[in-house]
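Work Package 4 report. The design task specified in the project plan requires that, given a folded chain encoded as structure tokens, an amino acid be chosen for each position. We show below one input record used in the internal validation round.
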């Protein structure tokens, strides 16, 4: 059995589908059954389990929720990059920051931050986009459902190849370069990490622990995993937490075309809460 995938019955797959949908909002279609079995088989071998039913019992009995999080990490894609979908960061720098020039205060939520590339890119854009960042009050909440990716994000340590496409001057300004045993490794500088607070949040929660209205929410390449009712509930929750005039950014492969929402479309993947 070593190296081979375990077989998952239709009944077992349905139990996992229901659990994953109820807990995370991720909607898995019938066509994902083979993929789920393949991605979880290695975990069954690691735990020396013989069936997916045994694994389901282990996941649901784990009060720490760590095994559920690990399972989600295995079946979902955490692909992200620095300055991914750069037009959003151009819009932040060119349109949003000038509007806040007098107040010099901005609150942003990276709602599915994965391993941290997105919130640190936001921080770099803020730092480089104003004349004197020391005069600004900039705070970024970065959240994810996975404690594993949050731990990596909070550490702020990346292989140098992760910034291969970032201008060298930007890298030099915002990262410390490792030496000796840490050669080839970069760590975000304190002025960036000071802007970002990492926190585990579930987007399916009815309320979020956010007290101050937000200027901007990033929720990119997450809603592709959700069905339309889940997308609609989430987008309308986001609307409640934004300031009038605040913006929502979604991923380039996503659309709210078929979702009922109160936002105004500013540009593809950019939405504004009206004043």
């Amino acid at each position: 059995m070593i190296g081979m995938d375990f077989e998952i019955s239709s009944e077992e797959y349905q139990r996992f589908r229901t659990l994953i949908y109820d807990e995370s909002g991720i909607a898995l279609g019938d066509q994902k059954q083979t993929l789920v079995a393949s991605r979880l088989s290695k975990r069954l071998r690691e735990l020396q389990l013989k069936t997916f039913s045994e694994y389901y019992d282990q996941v649901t009995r784990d009060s720490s929720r760590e095994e559920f999080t690990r399972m989600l990490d295995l079946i979902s894609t955490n692909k992200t990059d620095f300055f991914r979908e750069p037009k959003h960061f151009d819009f932040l720098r060119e349109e949003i920051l000038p509007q806040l020039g007098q107040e010099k205060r901005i609150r942003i939520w990276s709602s599915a931050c994965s391993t941290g590339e997105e919130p640190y890119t936001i921080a770099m854009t803020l730092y480089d986009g104003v004349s004197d960042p020391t005069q600004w009050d900039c705070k970024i909440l970065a959240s994810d459902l996975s404690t594993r990716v949050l731990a990596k994000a909070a550490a702020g340590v990346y292989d140098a190849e992760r910034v291969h496409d970032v201008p060298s001057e930007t890298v030099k300004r915002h990262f410390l370069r490792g030496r000796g045993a840490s050669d080839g490794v970069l760590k975000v500088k304190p002025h960036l990490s000071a802007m970002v607070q990492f926190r585990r949040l579930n987007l399916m929660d009815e309320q979020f622990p956010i007290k101050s209205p937000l200027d901007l929410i990033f929720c990119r390449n997450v809603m592709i995993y959700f069905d339309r009712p889940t997308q609609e509930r989430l987008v309308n929750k986001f609307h409640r937490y934004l300031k009038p005039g605040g913006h929502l950014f979604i991923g380039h492969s996503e659309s709210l075309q078929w979702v009922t929402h109160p936002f105004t479309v500013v540009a593809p993947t950019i939405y504004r809460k009206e004043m």
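Strands lie at 105-110, 137-144, 157-159, 175-177, 185-188, 196-200, 214-219, 242-250, 264-267, 270-272. Validation will be extended to a larger panel in the next phase.
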